[in-house]
Batch of 3 targets.
Target 1
Amino acid sequence: MEKDFVPTQNLVYPLEGTVGWKAPSNIALVKYWGKKPHQIPANPSISFTLDASATRTFLKFRRMDEAKEAFSFDFRFEGKAKDSFKPKIATFLGRIETYLPFLRHYHLEIESSNSFPHSSGIASSASGMAALALCLLELERLANPEMTLEDFKQKASFLARLGSGSACRSIGGSLIQWGSTPGLSGSSDLYGIPYPYEVHPNFNNFHDTILLVHKGQKTVSSSVGHGLMKGHPFADNRFQQAHENLKKLRPIFKEGDLESFIAIVESEALTLHAMMMTSQPYFILMLPNTLEIINRIWQFRKETGTAICFTLDAGANVHVLYPESEKTKCIQFIQNELVAYCENGHYICDRIGKGAQRISTSL
Ligand code: DP6
């Protein structure tokens, strides 16, 4: 329950200091699209945690003599003051204040940078909000060093969700499930959990090459898209389908059945975009090159039998997924046939990762 995340002890918080965290992005296999109030997802989702695409955040904190009415913080992104991000951060701080009641007593200097190129069209809210949540929670941990690692990660995921839903899947583990799921003990709408069942080695070191078809801003934000699932004519069926796909994935992960994995992952990606095309107002985020890439992948898979597939987030970029055993063939195919469809030939070679890491700030 939410109230379990409110600190109950009387803690003595530090006067000042600096903490740092690096949090990865993630790519959903079963998509979160549609939400209820307070960042509760309309359906459960599951994602691969990424490795190379990440946000590094440092938080410098200094206790003030008196609590301020408004949150006192500065935000710098890639070395420059970025005031346009401040309202989003202020909203986030407001949402998590009940769970980190010391926030108004500090002046915070937040300094963030992304490993992936700025405005590459890659969702930075997941890694960004996860890294910030981890830094803020680290401040509580300094006052309460007895907090277990498990409790720390669970609360970090809980807080990150309040910043951006998908951010709760960017904390710990390589395959993360978020959303209450009947029969999956420990699952919750409030935070992500490491997938608790067996996963076949076929999924170890899985690759995600992100093809940057369009590097600019999306025409419709995810928040607007989520909102359009309210009253959407296909919403109930879609939410049910997500549950079914998660159920189907269980034996697929266990047995390493790549063919069935591909069928679910690609269908999820296209369903996500189908929801956008059938909402009111309707919109399309895929671009002609998105479709060119998808068709090329299908053709290559048909001709060679390679276990390669695609997924999409809420944009035009294509995530190309393939197992370690197919790496050489796939990279060659991507370079020869797909990179031509990327904006300025840009793409990111990523793979499944292990989750967020604390950055040492002792030097
Ligand atoms: C298509 O997590 O960005 O990437 O909770 O409003 O911040 P907010 O939305 P966000 O939505 C992500 C949508 C998605 C699918 C997914 O990651 O599951």
Note: The chain is about 35% helix and 25% strand.
Target 2
Amino acid sequence: MGRQLHVIGNWKMNHDVQSCTDFWSELDGEDMPTTVAAGIAAPAPLLSDSLHKCPFSTKIYGQNCHQALSGAYTGETSAALLQSLGCAGVVLGHSERRQYFNESDALIHDKINTATSQNLQAVYCCGESLEQRKAGEHKSFVRSQIENSLFGLEPAQLQQLIIAYEPIWAIGTGETASAAQAEEMCAEIRQIMASKFGQGAADDLIILYGGSVKPSNAHEIFSQENVDGGLVGGASLKAESFVTLLRIAEELMSA
Ligand code: PEP
């Protein structure tokens, strides 16, 4: 069986109690696809509400967790708390966390270890800047991110890992990588993982593309061989476009 397509929305620091409620009630009447893995990464204060209001088949993710399981870390969220709430996983290493909160590859590695120790899926993000892309350094840069954050994992942890290739220049900019660029990098990432963990494990890995995915470009991007769906920011904020992305993935799953 082929890999399942995933559509995971990342709300970032958007939505409030009312708009979150509206989002989930708009999904209420929808016939949710069963062949596609659907998820939303919600801000921490909206996780509980989302877990109670989301359709049964939708997974809820945190957007970050601390590397320690508990302790005196004011303002932080633990992986154990996410797990006890009922979250399926957590997004880690998003470029906005790397850029604004100085998260290093080593720290992200520690966070993945903590998240998977709590049976959470880790949605690990990597991707190059525009300067690195222009200098032709995108492959070597992403390789170094992966070597530093993922090569120290135990093979068994790969079952709880999703990788999202997110070129920074395409996040929230409206500029999408072409389907060919997305495919090239997702294939490259699969090969990097195969070189360390073996082809079989790499073939099973879910690798998403993220960066201005929207209903108008999702079909072409999701139909690439090594792209197993998307991590979606802006287009996941409205129920209508989120559902449209799920329908596109559903259609591709049945093709
Ligand atoms: C993201 O937040 O990971 C993302 C890809 O955002 P956008 O879809 O808005 O570019």
Note: The chain is about 45% helix and 15% strand.
Target 3
Amino acid sequence: MEKVVEAVRRAESIVVSTGAGMSVESGIAPFRGENGLWSKFDPHEMASVTAFRSDPEKCWTLFKLQIEECFYAEPHQGYSAVVALEEHGLDAVITQNVDGLHQKAGSEKVLELHGTLNDLLCDSCGNQKKTEDLVDEILEKKIPRCECGTVMRPDVVLFGEPLPQRTLRRAWSAVENCSLLINIGTSAVVQPAASLPLTAKRSGAVIVEVNVEKTPLTPSMDHFLEGKAGDVLVELLERLES
Ligand code: APR
């Protein structure tokens, strides 16, 4: 941990990259591993673009569960620690998560690679709505429809869809220009997010992983901090600011 504290002190530009493990201590289930969402739902049946086009109502049983879990979730202290890193050179938070907890905690420089559950989209006419305006009916299992009659969908990247290109370009630029990347709570099996740390390393950055277990990326990391995201981040900030 002391080496990571020193790396933060020396860093000109810091990027934090987060996955579902960052939100577990806020009560949001991860996708993989024990009790993971994909152990209960088949992502290709419930969260792919072909599944949504053929049976949007079925996909909404998963969307509703995710909205139910995320909408009322509160960011834990680890999120506040990420906000505090903005005083220490944090230039971007790149997240695979769609729960919006970084913004809820006060982070402003958030790049959501996989979109967000907080916005709804109509694939037919492009109409957009805020989930919060329809959350009561969604939680009553009503499927939100656009005025044009089409079933709306959360503005998340479904399997088989491209990632938002502008967000992706900004994420690559951030990692290519940072001097420290902290990769938190991701199983590092989904591209292109899994390549961010290695791209940062190739650009000369120190790369750190925070996870409760090792991942395929761990051998490439300069430092591995084993532990829960909230616990590790709070300790990091306490040492940094002591
Ligand atoms: N603190 C830190 N890490 C944790 C914690 C915790 N409290 N709890 C779990 N983890 C770790 C797990 O060990 C695992 O490595 O978080 C990771 C969660 O992995 P996934 O569930 O695969 O989540 P993620 O890596 O974000 O998935 C990437 O896959 O299905 C797609 O779009 C979905 O964005 C998601 C992407």
Note: The CA atoms of residues 198 and 220 lie 8 Å apart.
